[in-house]
Sequence to fold (358 residues):
Amino acid sequence: MARVLMKGCEAIAEAAVRAGCRFFAGYPITPQNEIPEYFARRLPEVGGNFVQGESEVASVNMVYGAAAAGTRSMTSSSSPGIALKSEGISYCAAARVPIVYANISRGGPGVGAIQPAQQDYFQATKASGNGGFRMMVLAPSTVQEAVDLTYAAFDYADRDMNPVLLLADGVIGTMMEPVELPEMKTEEEIAAIKEGKKKWACIGHELDYANRSWIQPGQWDTKKMQEWNERASEMYDSWEKDVMVEEYQVEDAELVLTAYGISARICKSVVDMLRKEGYKIGLIRPITVSPFPYASYDKINYDICKAVLDVEMSIPAQFIEDVEMGVKGRCAIETCLCSGGNIMSREAVIEAVKKILG
Fold:
């Protein structure tokens, strides 16, 4: 397929349309504005519906409603906007309603800066809403990967009947790169997907209680609610098979960089540069940050590895806590950090590497 030059946010929206997304509701916020702008033009062309809600709260609940009726649906925002959507996302998880949403993250806390950051890691992977639910969280490092992961996210959401999050920072969202777009799902394929949801969707007919998954499970029955939590926990455990990770030149590494998203992309270029200077360094890049690729850290040769260097655009570090669980105290963990809208630089990573290795 021919390659086209697209901005990250627009490529994410086009990938969603090609995956069969036919409803989007959202609210403007930098740096993700191009996602709703693109959907506003594109969805009417394919018989879909776009709504700019009066708020983030309204938008996520519109998506909840559309998805509960069986339509592939999506929303997006940036950092503080995602926080406002958290209750609706928790409701979708409780009701087992499949939605996809994107966080094109920016600096914080609070309203913060409109520039890119990775300060939403805890929010994305540990506490996207009340109640302790979990989601698959996909973290691209290129626009092409953002396209591929968005396209796949709808299948994951439908398979699990659970929200799926695309966690992309403002660099990925606003940069332009050539991409190959996936095939457009046919109207027949989209109709078949919706038809397959009729056994649980809110479509106007009566169903027995066990199948009415669009209603909050348990209806205040604590026993049933615990049973639902137990089933959800089993689903989360099953995601081990879905782990995606890039392990780059780790085998003989005396220092292993670890990062996700744009920070990992910067780190990969540092590995290539410093390998030419004789530094034996490698990279572990989680693509799914939930589920997290803990097993990849077992592949490090701790007999020769002096340290793992956590690189992230967050102060204090957040990603590091999962890294610590993977390393299990087998070597030192150092950090290279920036935050608040400052973008990680190669120079900072190189300086950190040379400080550790001498």
User: Anything to note?
Assistant: The domain at 246-357 is CATH 3.40.50.920 (Rossmann fold). The chain has a mean pLDDT of 94. The chain has two domains: 3-241, 246-357. Residues 204 and 228 are 24 Å apart (CA to CA).
